[in-house]
Amino acid sequence: MVTLLEVHHVGRVRYILATDLTGKLTVFTENRTVHGSVTPTSRPLVFLKQRLLFLTETGAGSLDLRSMKIRESDCEGLNSSLAR
Predict the structure, then answer these.
(1) Rounded distance between C-alpha atoms, residue 51 and residue 72, angstroms
(2) Which domain of life is it from (predicted)?
(3) pTM score, two decimals?
């Protein structure tokens, strides 16, 4: 089941980002082929338009479309609590 869906433009190419209940992030090209998929350590809650950033239950992350690698960082001051 898809929980988040976002369209992101890189130059003239559009990418569709989809996240499911497990947190798996799948990237599709505009011709509906799978570009790649990754699973962050914390489930994405919302995407931000700038540079493929997303907020997670424990912090923030960014996705590099070329390497399909995620960089994540925790938010300070959450004291081990989770955002839902």
Answers:
(1) 14
(2) Eukaryota
(3) 0.83
